[in-house]
Give the backbone structure.
Amino acid sequence: MEFSEFAERVADVEQETADLEITSLVAALLVDADDELPVVVRFLLGRIVPAWDPTTLDVGPQLCHEALARAAGPNVTDDDVADRLAEAGEIGAVAESLDLGGQRGLAAFGDDGTDSLTVAEVNERLRAVANADGAGSRDRKIEELFGLFTRADPVGARYLARIVLDEMRIGVGEGTVRDAVAEAFDVPVGTVERALQVTNDHGAVAARARNEGTAGLNDVTLTLGRPVGAMLAQTGTAAAAVESWGTVAVETKFDGARVQVHHDPDGETAVFSRNMESVTDALPEVVEFVDREVDVPAIIDGEVIAVDDDGDPRPFQAVLRRFRRKHDIERMREVVAVELRAFDCLHTDGTDLLDDPLLDRRDRLTSILGTGVSPLTLTDDPEEIAAAEAAALDAGHEGIMLKNPGSAYTPGDRGQNWLKRKPDVETLDLVVTGAEWGEGRRANHLGSFLLSARVDDGGDAFATIGKVATGITDERLAELTERFDPLISSEEGSDVEIDPEVVLEVGYEEIQRSPTYESGYALRFPRFITVREDKSPRDADSLGRVERLVGDDDNDGTGA
Ligand code: AMP
């Protein structure tokens, strides 16, 4: 395809505002692209290489302005180009406005002796620009770009300049390309989406859709050394997780940086960031660790955290000092030690695991990696989830992740199967008015505490609103038992009444209307945060505040 034709069609796309029309125009362009389909797709997205490939043109605005100025003839300087840019606001309009044909000398002819510029040739030349490095590379890059700009027609120059400076901006995103591929080659959108997730190569997926159809797309596999998008999480509550999945896989949420480790026992181990850039050189410990532990080809997903001498986590900022570091790596290794906490496995020994359930992938992970796998708790008990969270926070981690044990790995997708437990937005300061003796190991301690809010601001009447038992360590329970013992006013079975004197700060996921407690409300997943030593029961939160939090302004306060 002539580059000028490509440019004209792209101009039509850019003019169009209706999404469906844009998709159809792109689909028609893909159908006509023939052998150049992969390149056309990349150019539409403003790329010269697939998303997994870190290669860049390494051309800044100044270099591009110089190439344009040269192609525009002796009367135009790179400062003139910069001035025009300041006025026009985008490089495409500037390139289009220059008389780039004025310099049509020898450089105006391609290798075949004609001046026609094809999409394939633009691709080749841009590759040469990208590959130029070392001494004299700047001049070689300018020379190549000069040659291209000289041979481009005005509309071609518009899009060429935009591709060069990574400013395509024609309203065609990855979603448009996905839909257009499906429309052009009559394959299901979901199949295209999935092949894109697995390969990160829009050009190759388009070609496969055309040449091999749905079956071909279904056959795509992961490739060691080519990163795929990390599966992402939404925020959610433990309540929602238990309701949706029954059993929940609870993992520690580490406060570090996401990595995808590609390990090839016969080749190299590469470590990629969440943006799919290589961070291999910055993290030699991770490479050494995986090389030592794993003896099959594997793709491992996890988090790199900074640790102190005892192996305890250090704050996120510490990891940042290591993560993308290019210099002084050995010295920094002494200052900030990092470790891998692996939590998923996408591929082992020739088999892609993306479609396997989380628990099976975790089994594979544990079988290939002796240590360094983040622990996982499987439970349907909200108390246990809260206890896991308390333990994670106690150990200095960020919190917990809730995952659907049966879910597949969907690269790059922020779906419903991984949830970051929502942090408490607001906490409540509530008075302890009762408690219950524990059982078994905790029989000598009070095990859960009945919480009450003040009925009126400044008043002495209290209404119960929930019980808190989680988030309290054994040591803290012993302390609290000692504290409450003298305040016990009556006992019946394991239940005790307690004089209202102590205020606890409590977190929760939700406040619900409920007939269970006197207030007419109940806290969902209440968690002990701390004893408010600075507060007396008169300073505790009132039902008025609870109502405001629930958004029940029309309530009369009795909960009725
Ligand atoms: P956020 O960055 O707040 O969107 O939280 C999601 C991030 O948490 C992921 O991208 C990971 O980098 C990180 N993370 C820490 N621990 C885990 C885990 N066990 N499972 C998944 N992601 C985790």
